[in-house]
Amino acid sequence: MSVAPAGVATAATEDHHHHPSNGMARLALGAIGVVFGDIGTSPLYAFRETFANPHHPLPVDAPHILGVISLIFWSMMIVVSVKYVSIIMRADNKGEGGSLALLALVSGQTKTRRWSRGIVLLGVFATALFYGDSMITPAVTVLSAVEGLAVAAPAFGSFVLPIAITILIVLFKIQRSGTERVGLFFGPVMLLYFTTIAVLGVMSFVQTPGILWALSPHYAVEFFFIDPLRGFLALGSVVLAVTGAEALYADMGHFGRRPIGLSWLCFVLPALMLNYMGQGALLFREGAAALESPFYMLAPDGLRLPLVILATAAAVIASQAVITGAFSVTQQAIQLGFMPRLRIEHTSAMTAGQIYIPLINWMLMVMVILLVLFFRSSSNLTSAYGIAVTGAMLIDTCLLGVALTRLWKWPLFAALPLLGLFFLVDGAYFFANLTKVPAGGWFPLLVGFIVFTFLTTWSTGRKLMIQRLREGAMPIRIFIDSAANAASRVSGTAIFMTSSPEGVPHALLHNLKHNKVLHERIILLTVKIVSQPYWPDHDRAKLDDLGHGFYRLVLRFGFMEEADVPAALKRVDMAGGAFKMMDTSFFLSRQTLLAAERPGMSVWREKLFSWMLRNAESAMEFFRLPTNRVVELGSQVEI
C-alpha cells in the first residue's frame, strides 16, 4: 500500500476526486510515474528469484520456464486486473482507497454484528503489515537496481552496498524538503523506464517466439502437475511480480480509478509482460548462465550501465512512493484514533496533502539501512519480501467480502464464486510465503505484530480514558446553573477543548477552582474525525447554545484532512460573534495516567499506553493553536 506524493495531481484533491475527462492523459501519466513504481521494478528480481532461490531452485527447462511465465501473467490478470482494477477500486471512500479507507467504509456496515470487531482488527493488522512492507521495499528495489553494476562493470561489484546505502540516506534526507519538484520528473522517467524494458523484452522474445505460448493457462496448470511441491514453493517468488498491486487502490484518491486502470491495461501490463517473456526467452537460449541477472542481461553490453542508472532511478521513485505512503497512512491512523498525535510538517503551501512526519522518516531510514547491512543482497531480501504484501492482499479480500455482501448487496451466487477465486489465489500465495519465515520472512511479521500491538493499545487505551473521564464528569446543565452566576465573569473568549461532547471538561473545572473566574463567552470544543476522507466546509461546525454565554461546538474533519482549528473557527460566526484570536484563550487538559488493576487492559499495556500518551505531540501543535494563547491544566486518570 502506498500513497502518491501530493502535488503530482492536485486537481484530484481540489474537486473532491471528480476527475475531468480532459485531464485523463495527464492523470494517466502521473499514475505511471507514482502508482506503478513498486510493481514496475519487480522484473529486476521476481523472475530471477523464482528459478535461483537457494532453498528451492527450479530446473531451467521448457515446462518450468513456460509455467512460471504463465503463472506471472495470470497472477497479474486475476490479482491486479480483476481484483484491484475492476472490483476493489469501485469500493472508494469518497474517492479515497487503501486498507484504512476500505476499513472505514465497511466497518459502518457491521456495527450491529458480533464479528465487526474482527473486521476492524483485520484492517488494523493490514495497516501494521504495511509498515513492514515499507521498510523492505526501498531496501530490495534500490539494492536490486544497484546490483546491476556488478553485471555491467564487474570490477565495481564491491561498491554495490556503499552505493545503495548512500542512495537510501539521500532519499530519506530529502523528504523534509518535499517531493513536489522531484514529482514532476516521476512520470517521464517511469515512462522511459517502462518503454525501455518493453523494447528489451521484444528484442529477446522475437529470437525465441515460442515463449508466447506461455500466455496460455494450460502451462501454469501443467507446472503443478509435473512438479507440485516446487510449483507451490515457487508461488512465494512468483508473487513478487505483483507486489505493489495494492498501490493502485491506495493511490486512487490522487489519480482516479479510470486513469489508473487505463495506464495499467494499456501500457504498464503490456510492458511488464513483454519484459518477463523476454527474460524467459533468454533462459531458453542461454540456460542457467543467464540466471545471474536475466533483467540486465537482456541489454547489449554497451547499454547495461545506462540501464543500471535508469533502473536505479525507477527504484528510487518506487521507494519514494512507499515512504510517502507511510506518511499518509500514519496521518490516517492518527485521525482515526489508532495512533497518538505525531509532529506532522507540511512541505507545500499549495498542497495540503503533501506531508512529512520526522519520526516515521528516521525510523524507516534506520530500519531500511539495517536490512541492507543484514541481508546484503536482493536475493536474501526477497526471502523477507512477500509475506506482508500477501497478508495485506488476503485481508483486502476479507474486507471486499463485506463490501460485496453488505455494501453493494450482491447476491451470494454471484459473490461467492468470485470471492472463492480470490481467496484461493491470495491464500496460496500467503501460505507459500509462510515457508520463507525461517529465511527472513519473520521480519515483516515481527514488525507487523509490534505495530499491531501499538495500534490496538492506543485505540483501546484512548477509549478507556474517555470512558473514565465521562464517569466523573459533571452534567453541563448543573454546572451552568450553579456556576454561571456565582463566579466572576471576565471579558474575552475561553475555548475548552474536550474529547467528549458531553459533560464538563476537566480543564474548565480546574480553571474555575484555581482562578475563580469565567470568561464572558465559553466554548466547549470537540474535534471529531469522521470515517470519510473529507468533510464539506459548509457543514463543518455544529453549535448548541447552552445559555449564560456557554456554547457547545463540534468541528468535524475527514480522516485525510488536517484538523486546523483556528482556520475552522474563522468560518464560525453564530456563537456570539466572530472569533478574534487576540481575545481568545485555549484551555487544554493534559492527563497523567495511573495504571490500575481495573478491567480493560492488562497492566503492561496500560504502561505502554501511558508512555505513548506522554510522548504524543501536544494538542496545541496538532490542532495548530496559537502558542501564546494556550493554557494547559493537568489531571490524573486511572485506567
What does this structure look like?
The protein is of the alpha/beta class and 639 residues long. It contains 27 helices and 8 strands. The protein has helices at 10-14, 24-34, 37-40, 46-52, 62-87, 99-107, 116-146, 148-152, 160-173, 180-205, 217-226, 228-238, 245-250, 252-255, 257-286, 294-297, 304-335, 358-375, 378-381, 387-407, 412-434, 442-471, 476-483, 506-515, 565-569, 603-614, 619-622; strands at 345-346, 355-356, 488-497, 517-530, 541-547, 550-558, 584-594, 630-638. The protein has a 6-stranded mixed beta sheet. The chain has a two-stranded antiparallel ribbon with strand order 1-2. α24 (506-515) links the parallel β3 and β4 (517-530).
Key words describing this protein structure:
single chain; 639 residues; alpha/beta; six-stranded mixed sheet; 27 helices
Topology:
Layout: H1 10-14, H2 24-34, H3 37-40, H4 46-52, H5 62-87, H6 99-107, H7 116-146, H8 148-152, H9 160-173, H10 180-205, H11 217-226, H12 228-238, H13 245-250, H14 252-255, H15 257-286, H16 294-297, H17 304-335, E1 345-346, E2 355-356, H18 358-375, H19 378-381, H20 387-407, H21 412-434, H22 442-471, H23 476-483, E3 488-497, H24 506-515, E4 517-530, E5 541-547, E6 550-558, H25 565-569, E7 584-594, H26 603-614, H27 619-622, E8 630-638
Parallel strand pairs: 3-4, 3-7, 4-6, 7-8
Antiparallel strand pairs: 1-2, 5-6
